[in-house]
């Protein structure tokens, strides 16, 4: 099954209590695509970069057999840049600088060979751009979408229009409360699912994730790590693992979606162990399966 990923590609300048990583390859679609590539051999990307995005950066993606024909390179511009500093608890961060550069004029054009994609994963971009992508896709089996506070507050109507065409929506707990207008996550889930997406995932960072479907609620634990170096991109990495597992399934059932949440959580737990996408470029399937089993064991009760 093919996965089309649309979102940002960026260079990040990351500071945490454990170090500093300048000019780090990042962006929502980069994390999603790298994570998903461990589950399927057909991941396609649509995005935009500047002249400073060199062959070595493309090679990171090509090393995971990711198709980059949909990435437009603007020779007279620079790639989107973000700088941030994380506090000691790693749950709070300050944005130090944001330079949209060529991303400010991003107009996603989906190549014809991508328009038959089975799965579509829309990263955290303007909901108007998310709609533009969906207008170009023929008959996707599944559409997954992410967003952030900026779009919830700034473009609520456009976001709701997007959600009406989405199958699975992934957000964090603060975003869920903001979008729903209710502090209770269970009530928030009911309100958001009424906007369109039948399946909702609410990420809670170090406290795991909640999956809401017609069949009930599934609670996934967070993996207890001793060393967390950089939480940047963990949510996008989760989305990549989640959609990656579903893409390799013969049918999408409640059980497989619950497994997908654990695979997404496993991939996110790897991501935070090193800066940027470094860890995502150096995994093998055995590591991933071992981490997945560890997630399952966290909540297992023996008779």
TrEMBL record:
The name on file for this protein is PfkB domain protein
Q: Name one GO molecular function term.
A: kinase activity
Which species does the entry assign this protein to? Chlorobium phaeobacteroides (strain DSM 266 / SMG 266 / 2430)
- Statement: the UniProt record of this protein carries the keyword Transferase: yes
The entry's keywords:
Kinase, Transferase
Its lineage opens with:
Bacteria, Pseudomonadati, Chlorobiota, Chlorobiia, Chlorobiales
The Carbohydrate kinase PfkB domain is annotated at 25-278
* Kinase keyword on record: yes
Instruction: Kindly list the GO CC terms recorded for this protein.
Output: cytosol
